[in-house]
Amino acid sequence: MAFLDNSGDIILDAVLTDTGRMRLAKGDGSFKIAKFALGDDEINYQLYNKSHASGSAYYDIEIVQTPVLEAFTNNTSTLKSKLVTISRTNLLYLPQIVNNTTVGLQSNSTNNILTVLVDQTTVEDLTIASTGDYVNGYRIGDTKNAIVMDQGIKSNAIGDGSSVVLDADLVETQFMIEIDNRFGNIWDGNGAAQATPSFVDDDNVATYYLSKSTNKSYFGKSGTRMSGEVLSGPRGNRLKFLVAPSVDLNSSTYLFTQLGSTATLGAAVYQIDTTVRITGVTTGYRVDLPIRFVKKQ
Amino acid sequence: MATTFKTLNSANDVTSTRTLLHEAIPLTGTIASGTYTDENIKNYSHGMFESVYDYPYLSSSANHIFDITNGYSTTSPCSSSTSVQNSKKLNVYSQMAQVLVGYDASGNIQDFDQDGDIAAGGAKINEALFVNFSRLLTKDEIKKGSFSLSTTTAGTPAAGNTTLTLQDHNAATSYKVNSPAGEYGILYTGSAAEATASNGVGLVYYQAGVAVLSGSVFAASQMGTGGAFIAEGFQAISTGSTIDVMANCFRNRLTNISFNNTVELNSTIYFCRASHNEFNYSNNPTYLSESQIRVKNSTTDNPVSYVTTVGLYSSDNELLAVAKLSEPLKKDPNTEVTLRVRLDF
Fold first, then answer.
1. For B199, what's the count of Cα atoms within 13 Å in the CB-facing half-sphere?
2. Around Cβ B1, how many Cβ atoms within 10 Å?
3. Among A188, B158, B233, B263, which has the highest number of CB atoms less than 10 A from its own CB?
4. Which of A45, A199, A202 to mutate to test the interface with B (most CBs of B within 10 A)?
5. Going along B189-304, which residue ranges are E strands?
């Protein structure tokens, strides 16, 4: 009788992230590990070949051969995609979060990206502003359309979204928005109130948690009552928000000259490109939304 | 309810361990006496000690490995106002004794004791050579019972005459704890069987990383200086030469130093348990095609996911630590996985 192969013990050495080290250094008890998540950042599920000629044992042959990178210590660069626990195993479709440009802010037709004009001069002088497709960083409440993110299933294979509701355990009732705190902050869809970040990490990334129960002004009509939808299948909740420029971007060109670039949009402008990340807290599904801050020179 | 996190149960999923890691540190005498023609030996204008590096010390890649100095107590026959650098040698001895031996009930600095039994009095080490090892080498402490120092004690150094090996025999189980600087052992010549209290010729302080050698180790008439040998005894050099000269004499006689260092590794182990019905789906952007799960053809197929990373989070969802698997690990409803994640401090 042969011995069992016990070489497969899974013992992993962990490294602290920059945030972990910062909290440990603070010594205020904020370094306390309370939970874990599993990630699959390196995996490309498009490599799963359900029609492999050699049979089902080979469906994932390319996936399991994927080389795994060493750990990043930057907390924002790793575990971008996580494994999800759903007790049911019979799901064939999962909800996604999509940017609804039908009823929400669309990319500016001039520069083809979601655009924030950061001050009065920029709003009043640039011809780009005539399109109306921008966030008014001077008077945030005058912005024509909010950024709208719809959650739901794209396909109508399991029912039309106007009549079939999304399973309750897959509905996002809380969203997390992450944005570089040096550049901007988050307001509700009407530009009436500024959200408060839950925390700002060592990389200046501010995290906002917006819950349907406590942040009603950030949520639109949901489910079958949703209008102007871009999802054919069952729908969950709609998130509406605005990105306003920081005081630094509004009043100074320092960050533009340090981190941005220049361009000509009818007139010479400074611009900074960044990403706003929207994550559903329930399913962990995430969307990265490119945004450009523009300031007239 | 779908979720991406699983809370760790502090009673069942988290444990702490303490591990002592040892590494062997061999120092050949040639590093101290010739490999780099003394470019790795650093002398200071204050003349209180001499430093030995593992490479010419002006190089940025040089590491400090140990210092050598010497001194004597006020009761030593070497102590005299006519002795060269008398006050410095007294000060060095006092400083080392203050830190390593401590004070008596009256607040007076106690002398180094030959057998470590300070309270009983007995023979003292009145003239001493001190070898202070760098923290880089000793780490948390020198492993008890592993210290060995070989030196020629008489004759010309080149001839290698009268080599003596000093070791902390039996120290793994028999060490002293009456020092304010931690635990220490007695250095003996000869074998473990001959290691009796009266044979002590030095002390090794394990946590402090300091070896104290009695001047009595060396021949009275032939301590000599390194390259340019002179037939002078330890006492003659102690009184008639500077600390630097004594340090040169000693390092040119060194043939070998070896010990094991110790690193105390405190680890917390997190048992990350993924049950059969957990973590079978993914929010990887490639997991879905028009919202349909790519790894399934029908609702009856099992969902499959692949683990490459474990993230440890705070209660407010901040990522505090990351561990990586060496290869993707398949997770489906037919498997349960326990990932043992170790975080060292």
1. 14
2. 12
3. A188
4. A45
5. 200-205, 210-214, 254-274, 281-282, 288-289, 292-293
Rg of chain A over CA atoms, in angstroms?
22
Report the range of poorest mean pLDDT among A100-104, A193-197, B17-21, B162-166: B162-166
B307/A38 touch (CB, cutoff 8 Å), yes or no: yes
Asked if B332 and A89 count as a contact pair (C-beta separation under 8 A), the reply is no
The ipTM of this complex is 0.87
How many degrees, rounded to 5, is the angle at CA B296 between CA B294 and CA B302?
Answer: 135
Can you tell me which residue has the tokens 């990586």?
B324
Q: What is the pLDDT of residues A67-78, one digit of tens each?
A: 988 888 888 888
Across all residues in chain A, what is the average pLDDT?
A: 89
> Residue B251 in 3-state DSSP?
helix
Q: Is B286 left (phi over 0), alpha (psi -120 to 50) or beta?
A: alpha
- Residue B174, both tokens: 């028999």
Tell me which of B194 and A120 has the higher pLDDT: A120
Computed from CA positions of residues B290, B295, B301, B306, in that sequence, does the dihedral angle turn out positive or negative? negative
What residue ranges of chain B have pLDDT lower than 70?
154-161, 219-232
Amino acid letter, B302: N
As given in the structure block, the two tokens for residue A134 are: 């921008």
Q: Which residues are bridge partners to B306 per DSSP?
A: B330
Amino acid letter, A217:
S
Name the residue in chain A with its Cα closest to that of B281: A84
pTM across the whole model? 0.77
Please give the single-letter amino acid code of residue A98.
V
Element (H, E) at B178: strand B176-179
- Rounded Cα distance between A234 and A255, Å, is 43
Give how far Cα B144 sits from Cα of A110, A184, B74, B139, B176, Å: 75, 59, 31, 13, 11
With contact defined as beta carbons under 8 Å apart, do B197 and B186 qualify? yes
The three-state secondary structure class of B246 is helix
For A170-180, the pLDDT digits (tens) are: 999 999 999 99
